[in-house]
Amino acid sequence: MNIYTILLLSLFILVGCSDSKLTKNIDEVNLTQYLPNNIDKIGSENTGDTFKDMVTILYNENVNNYIKELGLLDKSEDDAIQRVHDFITCKQFYKEDNKSGYYTQHDTYKPGVKYISRYIKDGYGDCEDQAMFAFSILTNIGIDVKILEYKTNNIGHIALEVNDKLFDPYKEKCGTSVGNYKETQYNKKIVYSEFDIVIEKIKLFIGL
User: Fold this and answer.
1) Domain regions of the chain by residue span
2) Where are the beta strands (DSSP E) in the chain?
3) Which tens digits make up the pLDDT trace of 114-134?
4) Each residue of 154-183: b (16+ CB within 10 Å) or e?
5) Are 128 and 160 in contact (CB under 8 A)?
6) Highest mean pLDDT among 24-28, 39-43, 182-186
7) SS3 letters for 160-203?
């Protein structure tokens, strides 16, 4: 075996190994292939409690396929957070829901926070839907996420705090770095911590 053959074989092995570890570019990610068949039933009830809705969705929806397709399993926490942010700002778009809700594909009105499968199906969502997507994905890969609820008069806003950094892709442009946001200037901020999330999960489990 001559030196050229050895070099070619080595290059082939290196390329093959590196390919197996490559993560898709965010533009190539296609989460719609993993959507449930009965998509018209996806959506939360309007409880008037956004936090409860978000934990209910987290409790009920399996997101493992989305995590895999986004290529998060071999990423550092910072890279995973940025990748989720990029999906929201580059692949989806912001749009306020009609009367704080939306219509299913069978025109059944279901107000409240969208399950992330519905958010993916629609291709858009408002601040609470963006936050729900990131909350569900990041929590399921073991990253500490707090839910931030801002209120002033009749206006509200939902964002997240992820590893002590503000995560708020509301109307942000594609490519913005996580942690460079300016905090929303509303009068009142409620912070739901990991402890609050665990308590809400327990209440759901025992039927409260």
Assistant:
1) 34-205
2) 93-94, 124-125, 145-152, 155-162, 165-167, 188-192
3) 889 999 999 999 898 999 999
4) eeebbbbbbeeebbbbbebeeebebeebee
5) no
6) 24-28
7) EEECCEEECCCCCCCCCCCCCCCCCCCCEEEEECHHHHHHHHHH
List Cβ neighbours of 164 (8 Å cut-off, separation of 6 or more).
Answer: none
Number of C-beta neighbours around residue 114 at 10 A: 27
Cα–Cα distance measured from residue 128 to residue 131, given in angstroms and rounded to the nearest whole number: 5
Q: Is residue 143 a contact partner of residue 77, using CB atoms and an 8 Å limit?
A: yes
Q: Edge to edge, what strands does the sheet with 165-167 contain?
A: 165-167, 155-162, 145-152, 188-192
> What is the per-residue pLDDT for 74?
87
**What is the 8-class DSSP label of residue 206?**
T
Would you identify the CATH topology of the domain 34-205? C8orf32 fold (3.10.620)
Give me the long-range contacts of 164-173 (CB less than 8 A, separation at least 24): 165/81, 167/81, 167/85, 167/131, 167/134, 168/127, 169/85, 169/88, 169/89, 169/130, 169/134, 170/94, 170/127, 170/130, 171/94, 172/89, 173/89
Using 50, 70 and 90 to split pLDDT, how confident is the model at 96? confident
